[in-house]
Design a protein that fits this description.
It contains 14 helices and ten strands. The chain has helices at 9-19, 32-38, 56-66, 69-74, 83-94, 109-117, 129-143, 154-170, 185-197, 213-220, 247-254, 263-275, 287-293, 314-322, and strands at 28-30, 42-45, 76-79, 99-103, 121-124, 146-147, 176-180, 202-208, 257-261, 303-306. The longest helix is centred in the middle third of the chain and has 17 residues, at 154-170. It is globular. 57% of the residues are buried. Its cofactor is pyridoxal 5'-phosphate. Its EC number is 4.3.1.19. It comes from Rhizobium indigoferae. Residues 23-309 form the Tryptophan synthase beta chain-like PALP domain.
Length: 333
């Protein structure tokens, strides 16, 4: 089944060879507190320790290195909720290319400013990822820039899949892998890698309760548009594209389940990561912990939860830890 999909296990292994030395092989540690709660061993894949603070560097680096020199010289452009933009800005700079990152006004300022610091041209337009993508399309059409999408591209998915290779290499007996789910680049890549090596391992996508575009699309049987709303897991926002060519089919065919989490559950995951695991993670990076704390994961172990990103506004993080952060859609904006 995996070989018929847009990204194969061999594609992911080729990506691993291509990006070796340019991204970190992040550590995986066992969590005593979560293991006690779940009744089975729980391991945390600390991908938020990646150079740019999230898994996105894997896919961005593989995509940039897969471009010809001529295409890199034209300039690279992408829409982003923040982490892809930061990763692409970094990867482009390393290869001597110029990146333009288009974001909506929902992207936190800490992520926008970091992208600027890395030398990228930033465009903040509209109030949704779809509107940011419209600006990307305009720049491709008018200025001839080369688009590197945040998720729906074989080279991006293959790069993200290298994370799955590391998980199975470190823990071949993994029974369940918990993956943050947005546009599906990470989930598709990790699932292709994990199931390509260990078909019995379950891969479960985790996302926020409101504005979950991939979940709505999977339920509808085709890509659909959803309203983008503010969330502690801001990196999981945005649509999957009505013309999605890669990640929808891979998530449909490879994911064993998709679980939704409330804002309160995501906040609890962030608090637990800090208080018990000594890890600072953004909302999207805490969804695996959140699902375990909420008792939403059923089945045997060992379990691996991917902590996907650390690019959180620290003032917001402190409010979450202190319990003073208004929860989107519940008590606050």
């Amino acid at each position: 089944m995996v070989s018929t999909l847009p990204v194969s296990l061999e594609d992911i292994r080729a990506a691993a060879r291509r990006i070796a030395g340019r991204v970190l092989a992040t550590p995986m540690v066992q969590s005593a507190s979560l293991g006690e709660l779940a009744g089975v061993p729980v391991h945390l894949k600390l991908e938020h320790h990646q150079t740019t603070g999230s898994f996105k560097l894997r896919g961005a680096t593989n995509a940039v290195l897969s471009l010809s020199r001529a295409d890199r010289a034209r300039g690279i452009v992408a829409a982003s909720t923040g982490n892809h933009g930061r990763a692409l800005a970094y990867a482009a700079k390393v290869e001597g290319a110029v990146a333009t990152i288009c974001m909506s006004r929902l992207v936190p300022e800490n992520k926008v400013s970091e992208i600027r610091r890395l030398g990228a041209d930033t465009r903040v337009v509209g109030v949704s990822q779809d509107e940011a993508q419209q600006e990307v399309d305009r720049l491709v059409r008018k200025q001839g820039l080369v688009m590197v999408p945040p998720f729906d591209h074989p080279d991006v998915v293959a790069g993200q899949g290298t994370l799955g290779l590391e998980i199975i290499d470190a823990l071949p007996e993994a029974a369940i892998v918990l993956v943050p789910l947005s546009g599906g680049g990470l989930a598709a890549g990790v699932a292709a890698a994990v199931k390509g090596i260990s078909p019995k391992t379950k891969v479960i996508g985790l996302t926020m309760e409101k504005g979950a575009a991939m979940k709505a699309s999977l339920d509808a049987g085709q890509p659909v548009q959803v309203e983008e709303v503010a969330s502690l897991a801001d990196s999981l926002g945005g649509g999957i594209g009505l013309d999605n060519r890669v990640t929808f089919a891979m998530c449909r065919d490879l994911l064993d389940d998709v679980i939704l989490l409330t804002e309160a559950e995501i906040a609890a995951g962030m608090r637990h990561a800090y208080a018990c695991e000594r890890q600072i993670v953004e909302g999207a990076g805490a969804v695996g912990i959140a699902a375990l704390l909420a008792g939403k994961i059923r089945g045997g172990g060992p379990i691996v939860a991917i902590l996907s990103g650390a690019n959180v506004d620290m003032e917001q993080h402190l409010r979450v830890i202190n319990g003073t952060q208004p929860l989107y859609g519940e008590e606050g904006p």
